[in-house]
Amino acid sequence: MTIFPSLRVPVIAAPMAGGPSTPRLVAAVARAGAMGFLAAGYKRLDQVHEEIRQVRQLTDAPFGVNVFTSGETRIDQGALASYAAALQSDATRLNVALGQPEADDDHFNEKIELLCAERVPVVSFVFGLPTGATIDRLHHAGVSVLVTVTTPGEAVAAEAIGADALVAQGIEAGGHRGGFTDHDGIGEYGLLVLLRLVRQASRLPVIAAGGLTDGASVAAALTAGAIAAQLGTAFLRCPEAGTNPIHRAEIGGSQETTLTRAFTGRRARAIVNGFVRRHTATPPPAAYPHVHHLTAPLRRAALIAGDTDSVHLWAGQAHSLVRELPAADLVRRIAAEIRSALAEARSRLFEG
Fold first, then answer.
1. How far apart are CA 42 and CA 174, in angstroms?
2. DSSP for 152-182?
3. What are phi and psi of 232, to 5 degrees?
4. What tens digit of pLDDT does each residue of 153-210 get?
């Protein structure tokens, strides 16, 4: 694991945009021997800069920052208009106007410039493949580059463009699908299958992501060829996480999850609630970030009102296993569970 020389526990706290990934969480995870990521998505440049500064005040351990890669998306304007009309009843009920469905690049170039200037140890990408020139800029600044992939073909493309390692995201993962495209049926491999196929397709180190919440599941990913496991949902109930109270209360329950475009226009795994059910009849279009901006006022109003049925509740398939623990305690618990699971598997292998 030369890309992570200080990683004593093969666990990475995933970048979770929208609030959960705080400097406190990143630092607590790092102090326990794992590694944390800040989420630059949806943030202004000054906010990203300030969070980097805060992490460095709290720890001198390596950390990462995740960036949304903007790509060209062909939008079905008719489907987008139909979905906006379907959302109007929610807007009326919450007494807000819908947002403007527009494209943006999430200040991509400015964020890359900042991360190079700050010489952040690791940068990861989701939603697409950065250009070779972008990767070269980061490498020149001494930054390691991870690319999130959901298919073997994406892994090959990421290796060819100069990525240092891959984040293989299985379909079990909570939140947005991080692959290069957003087509139904594409990039919907279970994690263990994806790990084996990516290991066959690419020589790069692979980090496993998707549905991993405890040491036994991490141990399975390690034996399938991952060098580390990236966990997101598992950290949502940590006191250091900036998870909003509505979301925090729903994690760890028995509710089912599903893939939906209802909140942002991009497939994402969320706990099934009223909003998801209401917007199944008129399928949300593949239109990110247009739908994200369209529904943003609804989601903000729902949070203020405490309306669990109208907010996005990102969660992995195994969210019922999540523990409410301080981040450092959770990392130590997972490390002990990894050792126990591997020892138990070894004993079974040689029985008889």
1. 18
2. HHHHHHHHHHT-SEEEEE-TT-SEE--SS--
3. -115, -65
4. 999 999 999 999 999 999 999 999 999 999 999 999 999 999 999 999 999 999 999 9
Q: Burial, 249: exposed, middle or buried (Cβ in 10 Å; 0-12, 13-18, 19+)?
A: middle
Q: Where are the alpha helices (DSSP H) in the chain?
A: 23-31, 45-58, 77-94, 108-118, 132-140, 152-161, 191-201, 215-223, 245-250, 274-278, 290-305, 327-349
Whether 24 shows a pLDDT value over 50: the answer reads yes
Q: What is the pLDDT of residues 60-106, one digit of tens each?
A: 999 999 999 976 678 999 999 999 999 999 999 999 999 999 999 99
| 35 token code pair | 């590694």
CA-CA distance, 158 to 156, in Å (whole number)?
Answer: 5
Amino acid 120 reads V
* Sign of the CA dihedral running 337, 341, 342, 347: positive
Q: Tens digits of per-residue pLDDT, 248-282?
A: 999 999 999 999 999 999 999 999 999 999 998 77
Collapsed DSSP state (helix, strand, coil) of residue 65: strand
pLDDT at 43 over 70: yes
> And the tokens for 331?
């990392």
Q: How far is 37 from 175, CA to CA, in rounded Å?
A: 15
For residue 317, the surrounding DSSP H or E stretch is none
Q: Which residue has the tokens 């203020």?
A: 304
Taking residues 30-46, report their average pLDDT: 97
pTM assigned to the model: 0.96
Q: Quote the longest CA-to-CA distance of the chain.
A: 68
What is the distance between the alpha carbons of residues 218 and 208, in angstroms, rounded to a whole number?
Answer: 8
SS3 helix, strand, coil % of the chain, rounded to 5? 45, 15, 45
DSSP type of residue 284: P
The closest alpha carbon to 169, from 189, 183, 153, belongs to: 189
